Amino acid sequence: MADWSPSTYLKFEDERTRPSHDLLARVPLTAPRRVVDMGCGPGNSTELLVERYPEAEVIGLDNSPNMLAEARKRLPGVSFAEADAGTWVPDADTQLVFANAIYQWVPDHLAVFPRIVAALPEGGVLAVQMPDNMAEPSHVLMRKVAADGPWAERLRDAARQPLPPVRIYYDALRPVARHIDIWHVVYNHVLAGPEAIVEWVKGTGLRPFIDPLEAAEREAFLARYLELIAEAYPSTVDGNVLLRFPRLFIIAAR
Fold it and tell me: pTM for the full model?
């Protein structure tokens, strides 16, 4: 895929940051010395960590140069670095690994999580949030448009895999975690019409489908996708639409 676009991502900053608020509210740490924001993006989640833990060393990691550049502008006093979420493990003095909406992009994250927790000191915490929305119309229709168009062969493997059941995460983490908390939240984001839904997913889930396409193909894909999205998400009484968005949250304490 092409590099991430901070401006596209931040069009819905309030909605995208809300899960970070909700995840951080359940982190059972009062004064960690070292905090890592894995998949920090443009720094919106990192900013929350700095505000909650002003005395901590907070480090933001991401694999996107564009996102890291935006994060450095937003938080010039914070250290940011490039890292691969699929292979990275924390230093032994890291007490909190915070990961908001990153590990759904890592195919083997089920194996990564126990490695991270095992590397933490006693009392250290892994806090994760991942979209669990592959069965939602927004993502079902991506796959439909991909399968029905002239680009079907090229986009055959574009979709990410759905998340495993929560029991699978519990069983993977239990051997290394003293405490595990797993829950779902379903958000209903009020957006200004089906076009706004398309803009939302253009910044994240739609990227593997449209990035490989030429400009004319991309336009055709998006036109068909918008048509189907408008059918799947009817207008509310005030002309808006509700984007139903389930997310999975995991807290694992060493």
Answer: 0.93
HSE value, Cβ hemisphere, 13 Å, CA-based, for 14: 3
In terms of Cα–Cα distance, which of 97, 10, 5 is closest to 60? 97
Strand residue runs (E) in 2-49: 34-38
Residue 211 near residue 4 (C-beta atoms within 8 A): no
Kindly report, residue by residue over 11-34, the tens digit of the pLDDT. Answer: 677 788 899 999 999 999 999 999
Regarding the domain with residue range 6-253, which homologous superfamily does it belong to in the CATH classification?
Vaccinia Virus protein VP39 (3.40.50.150)
Contact 225, 113 (CB under 8 A): no
Cα radius of gyration rounded to whole Å, the chain:
19
CA distances from residue 116 to 40, 45, 252 in whole angstroms, order as listed? 17, 19, 10
For residue 82, how many other CB atoms are within 10 A of its CB?
11
Tokens of 79: 């250290």
Q: Which residues of 161-192 are buried (b: 16+ CB within 10 A; e: fewer)?
A: eebeeeeebeebbeebbeebeeeeeeeebebe
148: how many CB neighbours lie within 10 A of its CB? Answer: 11
pLDDT tens for each residue of 49-93: 999 999 999 999 999 999 899 999 999 999 999 999 999 999 999
Taking the C-alpha atoms of residue 63 and residue 56, their distance in angstroms, rounded to an integer, is: 23
